[in-house]
Structures
1.
Amino acid sequence: MAKSNEFFKRTRVDSCSYVTVKNGIAQAIPYRPKPKLSESSTSFHQSEHQIAYKISPHMHVGMSNKPLIPYHPLSYRNRLPVLDARKPPKNISSIEFGDRTVVDRKHFVSTSRNIYGNFGRNDPITNTGIIAERTKWHHFLQNK
């Protein structure tokens, strides 16, 4: 506090380096910041691979000891806990064969066969009424 104004020399000011008075206004001069390291002398302590694949705890809102990490709005630290999937009992099978009494006649008919099948369109019939009835019948068969 040797550089401080006479009024502030005997005070216990620990929040600044010294206090000056300019034009009747007291100004606190902050402590000198630590010199910044140049970009070239910066050394990385962890590689990108180590950061990406480090083992992190299963974080959620209700943790008792959350690790301190930089804020991110979508961080798991800010989310509710995700419930684990339940394991099914060992004596239950999940395979279902279905009802074997139901017979589906078109089960193995391909889409191409269903749409472009043998509908007798090669007949030399030009009557539009007959063609319309056949088309309606074939559409009915396709939707079965």
2.
Amino acid sequence: MCNKGDSGKCYSNNYMKAEQVPFSAIKDKMSKIVVASIKAELSDKVYSPEDGESFARKVSSRIAKLVRWRGNFKYSVVTSILEKGESRLHMSSSFYWNLSTDGSLVEVWENETIYCIVPVSYTHLRAHETVLDLVCRLLLEKKKKKKK
């Protein structure tokens, strides 16, 4: 089967599109998808400890489904649900970026009883790189680092 990219070239389903879309070109659109996903899942919800995990899973799943088709990127979505009140949360993450193509965003949303924090990161894949190619390349790079 053949998928045609914007250039009209044919790409196998096993490969990512060759067009490179920089993160800066999709950041605003992705932010809107994240906020809309949070609102769709949580707007009418009231926090309860029994439902917290389900709320987080539903938000992350909705975002992942909506961004699956978006260009030559690998996405990471993490959703944290907290009860409003006296709770505290400290988070940190670190990534290696190609600043011209990759990036991240964090959306914070709240209602009367819930805080929802969703960091999303985007890592650009190399043109024509399959998932198998990516895994092999990362394993080889890890092996090279161990030898040094």
3.
Amino acid sequence: MEFPPCPYRVIEECGGAYLMGGVGASIWYGVKGLRNAPHTDGRFPWRAWRTSKFAGREVLRQAPKVGGGFAVWGLWFSTFDCSLIHMRGKEDVWNPIGAGALTGGVLAMRAGVKAMAKSALVGGCILALIEGVSIGFQRYSA
């Protein structure tokens, strides 16, 4: 898989993460808004408009927040990934694993050193699992 050069990759992945978080949150909070909307009488179709309006209001309120959180994660991850590629001089599976660990640590920095270490471990393990599954699929399909 060919990636764009690193300065552009950071911006591209940040935007892609914002879009992914925004779309996922729109679906999630749209359904949640429809379920939590006040019940309407089925005989009056104009009351269904109020239910969908309630769901749309929930999406407009929550989706940008979730998308922003995804964008911050994507920004840090791609920044660390590009930095590790530059420092190590090669692009292999260890760069995303290290970038995931560093991203988890940086995002938990405000909670203290203990939480930072736990989040770094979890981020590294999740990215190691993703990279392992990716390698498995590549070997299976080849």
4.
Amino acid sequence: NDGEVPEKVHRHAENSIEHKIDEVGIKLPEECPALEHVPEVEDPSIPDFVVNYKNQARPIVISGCMDDWPAMSGRTRWTISRLLQLGGPRTVPVEVGSNYTSNSWTQKLLTIKEFVNTYLCDNPEEIGYLAQHQLLDQVPALGEDVRIPELCYTGDEDEVDINAWIGPKGTVSPLHTDPKHNFLCQVTGSK
């Protein structure tokens, strides 16, 4: 059964460590302005979001806007089993290495089943990360499990790009900026 999760992956998911923001440190150059607390707001209205955050280029942590997603609960909750069941034989790009700035970083094409068995298991030999991939276009049944928040349509573009990132603990994306505004919707785990 392609939706069956290997025992070593079950153990890994049960033993995963969640990191708290104050446990992770970034050393900034002395000339950097002081970091400010990022406010958390419960499902803001569109006017509140646009006026108080987007137009002022202020980051925000939004809670509550994913509560109605099928991916969050019930039989359609996103789990490794669901990922394998719906997308197991699909081929995806996987970044291999500690992060994309590392000299040993590379990419491989693997099936989702190979990715899960190799990198989402107990003590993988190296870090593998399914990163910035349009998985919900590739596996439309997964796309049916999400609802694009209305806040995503407050810009100049009519279309919204949806990418997926799936990785084990220890996955790192170096500090960077992106050319577009972003909403990170965290279904499981921590960032």
